């Protein structure tokens, strides 16, 4: 029997890192590692890092500084705390991290965490290289355990990794590699495993998830590679899976087959995250986005014609190099025209190694802050209005966990809003109709239409 040990996994960044952290836990379980919420006294600490946000590497080094006394205390007591840095910062920093932070025992990129058990074994034998940073993505998915640990009725499921778009502000192509799509049969097997463990909703993940072009199921080779629309319809046939979402999409990869799937497959939720990034064609070109504002708006029109009740979400970057006041106003006007249900917005920050970092006409920090405040005020007003439009409606809600208050449940609407009701905890993991009675910026509140009745 494996010796019982404790692992603390700290996750930074996107949903794909959340998925990766769950799988790191899965590959460690056969070695006897149980997860713990605190690094105090842990036998292994894994920092699963993200390189998207500003000063990402420095935040990791700061966290390592906080871990150093814990590692030393463990050693002084005759024990050992191994420290591993995984994810995109590990991929970008590589050997530099080992040089700068000697306390780090293992460094592994996002495609190599399946090698963690082997790396731990080598460390215990005091031999071997503790740096793994390459793009052997096929190996990773082949090597992961088939069984997954799940926590609740919703789960992430990575179907695609990497990016071939090379937007000039983004580090993903350099840290996750080129686009790779998992075979349909492999994804379906994981989805069935999740359904068997009580998962009702899967969110399909990818850096460019709608660029998915996976190997078709066995016996369907004549179909050629499947797109995301075909895959979503296929997963919808799996018993127990009642809701399907996906993120993050790119406008260049939103094809008619996927739009038609939104119109025809009721399990595909009416919520779409489709980043625009900027409303100025000049800035979109400088970002190397590969689409214009007009093509984006035409796409929105087609999507809404196919699924009139769909809620749209987006990402925006303000203060990209060369963005003038007029360019920014174009972004504001685009937001008004689309009318989003929810959005994420950020100030542009330089990413070393990306083309944007060396561009001329960098926008002043105070100007970026002012533009971001104005944009976020507009986006917040749209989100408040969208939530308010749900009051009086009856929505099917998937209940995920107890709420903060006694007797309260929290779930998600089809539009990804948090919904709070009073109800029995027996409803957790089920879908039940809720009459929406009030709204706020971030959530809805209502009453069960009929206590204990589940509507699949």
What oligomeric state best describes the polypeptide chains here? Answer: single chain
| CATH level 1 class label of the largest domain | Alpha Beta
| pLDDT averaged over residues | 88
Full CATH superfamily name of the largest domain: tm_1862 like domain
Helix content: 25-40%
Question: Can you count the helices?
Answer: 14
Main β-sheet, in a few words?
6 strands, parallel
Strand order of the largest sheet: 2-1-3-4-5-6
CATH fold-level name of the largest domain? pyruvate-formate lyase- activating enzyme
Q: Which architecture of the largest domain per CATH? A: Alpha-Beta Horseshoe
The chain-level structural class is: alpha/beta
What Rg do the Cα atoms give? 23 Å
Strand segment tally = 19
What characteristic shape results from the CA principal axes? globular
> Segments where pLDDT lies below 50 for 5+ residues?
452-456
Rounded to the nearest angstrom, the distance between the terminal CA atoms is 41 Å
Number of domains: 3
Q: What does this entry look like structurally?
A:
- α9 runs parallel beside α10 and α13 packs parallel to α14.
- The chain has 14 helices and 19 strands.
- The chain is of the alpha/beta class.
- The protein has a six-stranded parallel sheet with strand order 2-1-3-4-5-6, sandwiched between helices.
- It is 34% helix and 21% strand.
- The chain has three domains: 130 residues, 3-Layer(aba) Sandwich (Rossmann fold); 251 residues, pyruvate-formate lyase- activating enzyme (Alpha-Beta Horseshoe); 55 residues, OB fold (Dihydrolipoamide Acetyltransferase, E2P) (Beta Barrel), CATH 2.40.50.140.
């Amino acid at each position: 029997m494996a010796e019982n040990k404790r692992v603390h996994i700290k996750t930074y960044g996107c949903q794909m890192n959340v998925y990766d952290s769950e799988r790191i836990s899965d590959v460690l379980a056969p070695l006897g590692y149980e997860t713990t919420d605190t690094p105090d006294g842990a036998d292994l600490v894994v920092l699963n890092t993200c390189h998207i946000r500003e000063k990402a590497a420095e935040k990791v080094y700061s966290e390592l500084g906080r871990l150093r006394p814990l590692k030393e205390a463990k050693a002084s007591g005759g024990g050992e705390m191994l420290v591993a840095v995984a994810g995109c910062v590990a991929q970008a920093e590589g050997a530099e991290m080992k040089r700068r932070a000697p306390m780090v025992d293992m460094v592994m990129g996002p495609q190599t965490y399946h090698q963690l058990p082997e790396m731990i074994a080598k460390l215990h034998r005091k031999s071997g290289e503790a740096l793994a940073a390459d793009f052997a993505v096929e190996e990773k998915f082949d090597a992961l355990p088939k069984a997954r640990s799940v926590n609740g009725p919703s789960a992430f499921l990575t179907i695609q990794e990497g990016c071939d778009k090379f937007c000039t502000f983004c580090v993903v192509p350099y840290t996750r590699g080129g686009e790779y799509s998992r075979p349909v049969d492999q994804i379906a097997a994981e989805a069935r495993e999740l359904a068997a463990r009580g998962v009702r909703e899967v969110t399909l993940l990818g850096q460019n998830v709608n660029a998915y072009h996976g190997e078709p199921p066995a016996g369907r080779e004549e179909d050629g590679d499947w797109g995301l629309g075909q895959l979503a319809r296929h997963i919808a046939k799996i018993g127990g899976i009642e809701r399907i979402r996906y993120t993050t999409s790119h406008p260049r990869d939103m094809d008619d087959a996927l739009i038609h799937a939104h119109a025809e497959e009721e399990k595909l939720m009416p919520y779409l995250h489709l980043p625009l990034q900027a409303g100025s064609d000049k800035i979109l070109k400088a970002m190397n986005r590969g689409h214009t504002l007009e093509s984006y708006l035409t796409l929105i029109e087609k999507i809404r014609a196919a699924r009139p009740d769909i809620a749209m979400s987006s990402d925006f970057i303000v203060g990209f190099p060369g963005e003038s006041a007029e360019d920014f106003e174009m972004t504001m006007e685009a937001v008004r025209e689309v009318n989003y249900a929810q959005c994420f917005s950020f100030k542009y920050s330089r990413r070393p190694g990306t083309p944007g970092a060396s561009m001329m006409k960098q926008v002043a920090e105070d100007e970026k802050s002012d533009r971001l405040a104005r944009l976020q005020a507009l986006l917040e007003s749209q989100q408040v209005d969208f939530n308010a439009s749900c009051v009086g409606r009856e929505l099917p809600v998937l209940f995920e966990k107890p709420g903060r208050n006694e007797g309260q449940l929290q779930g998600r609407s089809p539009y990804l809003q948090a919904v709070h009701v009073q109800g029995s905890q027996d409803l957790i993991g089920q879908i039940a109709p809720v009459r929406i009675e009030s709204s706020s910026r971030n959530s809805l509140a209502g009453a069960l239409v009929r206590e204990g009745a589940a509507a699949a």
